[in-house]
Amino acid sequence: MEPTPEQSPHHAYPDHWEADVVLRDGGTARIRPITTDDAERLVSFYEQVSDESKYYRFFAPYPRLSDRDVHRFTHHDYVDRVGLAVTIGGEFIGTVRYDRINEQGRPASAPADEAEVAFLVQDAHQGRGVASALLEHIAAVARERGIRRFAAEVLPANTKMIKVFRDAGYTQQRSFEDGSVHLTLDLEPTEKSLAVQRGREQRAEARSVQRLLAPGSVAVIGTGRTPGGVGRTVLRNLLAAGFTGRTYAVNRAFDEGLTTLDGVPAHRSLGEIDEQVDLAVIAVPAHRVPEAVADCGEHGVQGLVVLSAGYAERGSAGRELQRELVRQARSYGMRIIGPNAFGIINTAESVRLNASLAPESPARGRIGLFTQSGAIGIALLSGLHRRGAGLSSFISAGNRADVSGNDFLQYSFEDPDTDVALLYLESLGNPRKFTRLARRTAAVKPVVVVKGARHSGTNPPGHAVPVSRIPDATVSALMRQAGVIRVDTVTEMVDAGLLLADQPLPAGPRVAILGNSESLGLLTYDACLAEGLRPRPPVDLTTAASPQDFRDALAEALADGTCDAVIVTAIPWVGENGNAETGDGEVLAAALRGAAAGGPAKPVAVVHVEIGGLAEALAAASSTAAPRTRPTTLAGRPATTPGMTAPGASATTATPPASPTTATTGTTAPATDTAQPTAATATPDTPSATTPTTPGRIPAYPAAERAVRAMAEAVKYAQWRRQAATPGKVPEFLDDTIDEPGTAALIDTLLGPAPDPRGRPLTHDEVSELLGRYGIPVRPTLPAPDAEAAVAAAARLGYPVALKTTAPHLRHRADLGGVRLDLADEEALRRAYGELTDLLGKPAELLPVVQAMAPRGVDTVVRASIDAAAGAILSFGLAGAPSELLGDTAHRLVPATDRDAAELIRSIKAAPVLFGWRGSAPVDTAALEELLLRLSRLVDDHPEVVSVALEPVVVAPQGLTALGASVRLAPPPPRGDLGPRRLPNY
């Protein structure tokens, strides 16, 4: 909405202040600046406010607004006077304004940095979190305009408004003056204010999904008059699932005399339905969807599932239709799943909703499933059903125009019926938010993700969001840091999901293997080694083993304190006539379940080859649908964080068996130091972290590699959960050696008053000064345009020296002869200079420099960069071929903690080189971790530092030296994760 010429010509209408928000009850509303066109809306809004609310706003009876009031409240300069409104259906439901004031409380302009703020919310919408959302947004606007404090006068009886200010989390002062409460709020975000904001966001977005998945009534718009078609199929599936609410069939083409269809009321429009409709499933052609959405909005529908296609998947014209669809739905306070969606399912006994095209509703279970692709959704539903797994909820979001994987994580975090969240994603619209939500959710329940379009990822169809430029390997590393179980295929996702949903988490990587096939046991053993597990020698029960033998062996393995998990392998028995006998799978399944139920809580998986009925029987445990949890407990060893060890240490290396152990010789005796279960505590503001305590269903796999891979993912996730219980921190010693204010002033000077949006690289001297303020020294270099200058530079720096080219095509290329080391005297330096120029070219082309030699060590590379979508990323690897050719680089999100830094240097494949590989001296990893923390702190404190590369960093047995560094400054990219909550823009 554009302003009229009556408004200040000096400040354009700030359309970036417009935002869609989710309110406390899950409905949506729009926040936007008030303009002169809003006079009638303001008057209408004020007329619907109660006398009591008016009294609280103006401290006196104020039945109506005068013309002068209306003019004052609709005319703003968007700097010193700002008004925001919350709208639903185009009408105001709440307003807020601020007026800049001076120390005497009189109207003022900058540089005055205080403003008086006042709110008014329509009574019918109080309690929905409208004022809290307005406070977040008006505070962000004020900070943008240089206002640092809000002052507010509130009557003592206006307890709701006092609570809004008190609960916001800002630093505040309160006093009682002249019969009113005087509040002063410092608008600088605090840890508490961000936590409050994100907590409200989580509850609101979870509630918005819950409203979609648990409606009291559903209308299918576009239900066909004859069997078949999308709408009629959804109606049939709703009825077949036994939906517990009311169901309606809607089609404007119905005959006037038609009153029922398939036993449910039939109507030509929603207006004919006398009762509230909570959810509408829209299955009409795209050109008719706007009419259906308007009908839904005008009759109070809370949410939409749009199955109709013809949107962003069809190109630019479809993208614009999709944007308009979302804008229209949000204007009525509705959220959308779709368009081009497959549907939603909720198996809760109190709901039994199947508003999808899936012909058969899945069994009730503990797995929540979100997918963007309808085809992948069909495949996953079929695969889970085939393996006897049940679901708690299912969302196939299609184009994901509104409700996204982030919303699903918000819902799954709180849903007591979901133990595992599975997500198939083709894009991450907001990677910063995704990693934040995933980390919090993973602290209490597993999150398993398959990322499609890994090498051709684009924006979500129709979304206006920053595009992430980081490689897929980096995305995977960041997901791991957040506790996400990243797998490559939907089959692996199902494999991992089944194990995590039904089995306890393993206490460590020690795996017992038992079965009736020596060969299958060895294949399982090899697979365990390949996945980084520590398998024990396989126990061969021989082909003559009975179900009772399996039960006894499994019970013994579970009781053994030296193993953390068990994999059972089984092949058909061979009869006396030499023919294979599949045997009775149900009998073997009962034996295995009995042993698992009677032993310590450890995960069990079964690898089977053509044993009829075994997989089905293992999946048929009666406890499938019921929660089998204990609060915050991981089976096995204590949940304390183990100390960091050097990669490749013998403690993690399994010894290959000389021959498989047979049942007649027994298994290894239980260790005397059997570990005891302890708690891995969730964060204080989260639901209790839960994991199954006793096995119910035992997952079965047709190949050893699949079972082992699922178990390995469970092991890594369990280790992350234990470590997440005691998160790392930024050491306090850094504060004494870091000049944050001085660095900020230096950056302002370097960027200048009108910085180039593309940024600028820093010179060598500027880099040294900037990094030095954060305790990161760079070894100086001196230019050597000729041999005489090189000799003078060496005399100044002191021998021995290195002579290096700095031309871009030769930088860091010792293999091309562009670096000469350990030049001990002038003669050696002159000889090296001549050889360098004779071999590679003229000095003007080579740009040679002289640098004092650093102590010998391991060459590494440390980088930090800011991705527009993912945020600041810290990277580490060994310099040269390991990182450049083999891609052996580790990544962590900034800000990095001491734990992150320690893990970063240990997570690359070449890490043993740092810890004394093949008898070499271990290097100073403590100094390396400190360097990583300092660099992380630099880019976190100063977002204008968009890129830093330290290459090489030579890490010696004592200390380290940064031999080269480059820095790029640019105006900081926007940080949506720190601003007020909002839905993606359209």
Task: Give the low-pLDDT segments.
Answer: 1-9, 622-645, 648-688
Mean pLDDT value: 86
- Please report the number of helical segments: 27
- The number of strands is 46
Determine the N-to-C terminus distance: 14 Å
Strand content: 15-25%
Strand order of the largest sheet: 1-2-3-4-5-6-8-7
Measured as a percent range, the helix fraction is 25-40%
Q: Pairing-aware structural class of the strands and helices?
A: alpha/beta
Shape: flat
> Strand count, sense and closure of the main sheet?
8 strands, mixed
Question: In angstroms, what is the radius of gyration?
Answer: 33 Å
List keywords for this structure.
flat, alpha/beta, 986 residues, 27 helices, eight-stranded mixed β-sheet, seven-stranded mixed β-sheet
